[in-house]
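Format notes (please read before filing issues)

Several people have asked whether sequences and structure tokens are stored in separate files. They are not. Every record keeps both together, in the order shown below: the sequence lines, then the token lines. Line labels are part of the format and must not be stripped during preprocessing.
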Amino acid sequence: MAVRPATEKRSRASAAPSRTQKSGKSANPAVNYQVAEFDKDDELKAYHDMLLIRRFEEKAGQLYGMGLIGGFCHLYIGQEAVVVGIQKALRDGEDQVTTSYRDHGHMLACGMDPKGVMAELTGRQGGYSRGKGGSMHMFSREKQFFGGHGIVGAQVPIGAGLAFADKYRGTDNVSVVYFGDGAANQGQVYETFNMAELWKLPVIFVIENNRYAMGTSVSRSSAQTDFAKRGESFNIRGEQVDGMDVRAVKAAADRAVEWARSGNGPYILEMQTYRYRGHSMSDPAKYRSKDEVQKMRDERDPIEQVRKRLVEKGWASEDDLKEIDKQVRAVVTEAADFASADAEPDPSELWTDILR
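Then the structure lines:
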């Protein structure tokens, strides 16, 4: 897979491009214009994986409305390119992932079983946390997925801790920790930045800037809205990335992973993305206009971008893509059926997994 210049969005980085990358021309040498050049298989895989997340989240929203999912439920619709692009740069089963409560998409991208994820949403015994964690608290040691965390910003020091363990053990694994623009203002984030750079931990901080945190525009809540600069006082390199283009995400992830895996310490990626739904299922999202949301859907949708490229390059017909959608919907329907019919956990499950 090669990388070629892009014109859609700037990518701000002070790191030098790797040997497999080409820099676009810019008056500012710190700015790179790059996307990964996907072949047919890359595009089809990205299309399938993002579509799986989209259809899964749509179904989760339906089950929530039916009362089958209780508590909180934060959907990832619109942000699919971020986690799919980054996951393509990681080593499956070795590199670790930690994230916030908007986590279903990350689980699916890591390869976790949709049935197990959906069953946890409905509180059934077949769920990844055996029905005790719900939407915000799922884990998979096999897939190196360490949550799903409900406390804002709590996953950031946990992700750095995983990176500390990697360095202590002498591996070249990296830890990726996702958090949002709202969590970026939490104090523990900056404590973690300081330790990560001081100890040169192999951790990549991915800030998923969907512009509104829990419901307040970044322009009203953040004095510094260029989140790629948040690590400058700690000498942590950072860059802004078009988080709606899976190719741009992949190219940026390659740079960050190479940097961290080579022993250079942490890296910050600000993914400029957008969520179509409210912060959670209980959020009517009245703080933004319907026209704004529709404009993003029409012009920047990450799945539609891939679909157009596949058709224009003759790599897939509309019928081919409809068949992929059909297959994905079947997987999601199977997951929903399983999650609806599976038994609830035995009451004795309340006493398991307790640290004493």
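For reference, the curators noted about this record: Strands lie at 2-5, 11-12, 31-32, 34-37, 96-98, 175-180, 203-209, 237-242, 267-272. The first strand starts at residue 2 and ends at 5.
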